[in-house]
Amino acid sequence: MVVSRDPMRAAPLAFAALVACAPVEEPATAVDAAPDPVVDPSPYVVEDTGESATPSMSAEDVAAGITRAFAAALSVDPRDLADAYEGIWAERDDPACPYYYPEYLTLYNQYIWSADCTSEAGATFDGYAYYQGYRDYDGGYYTYDRYFYLYTSAATLTRSDGQRLTGSGYAYYYDIDYYAYAYRAAYEQIQGTFKWEGDSFEDSWLSRGISMDLYLYTYRYDSGALYTTLTGSLADIDDTVTAVNFDSVYLENAATGTSCAAEPGGAVRLRDSAGTWYEVSFDGPAYSGAPSFPAYCDGCGSVYWRGDYLGEACPDFTALTGWQERPWE
Question: Is the full-model pTM beyond 0.85?
Fold first, then answer.
């Protein structure tokens, strides 16, 4: 028998011998827990009031509501917001109130400020804003007549005479004359809520403080051909129509030679004062050059309320096809 004199080598042998001689413990037997008692759920019972839901608007009402909704959407002129902001901005103390980042102004012609201050002229600035704007910029084959971008976060700007602009959201707008190609275009996108308090914009959409998420792009050739895309949502149209949603509404006028100038492509949804929605889908072309089925091009769309067919709505699309305002005036 060879006996190791190295204690480090002998230790594993001794431990193995102890383990071999140790009694083996039987594993404990698991005890099943008592099952949870079975409880029968009580049924959910909807109380029958005996009254059946009925729509508050007819197909004719929906048609009239869509006509008003188009007019309301086009009345949202982003230039009013730019004019309101620039009028108060003109009363700032440059560059102390509000303090803005000069490097952004130098590099990008952008004002970015965060403040709670009163200027020497008496205007107050509270919140955060990012603004860029210019006019009459000539790019060689086009001219920006107006361009601006405004972003505000919980901002309140008060003019020295007490008139006030509040808002959170952003607005982006430009109108451009592509004189080399004989057409003009306008692009606008507004998201959020802006409100003016005072006489200067009392006849503008700004005085209503409405919430919106609107996108509009339109262009017109010197020949008269007009193309318009409208999508997004707008609240507080009137007491009957509390909101509208434009789903990729696209319309051309007859001067484009379109296969369907009587109605747009896309859909319009209206919400009534009871909070229910009415949906109308139209059969015009979805984009420039898209096909449409002539038999369905009748200027009307089917109205559905909670999946029920209510009839045909035939709105007036003149607000879009006969648009004579920005940027054409």
Answer: no
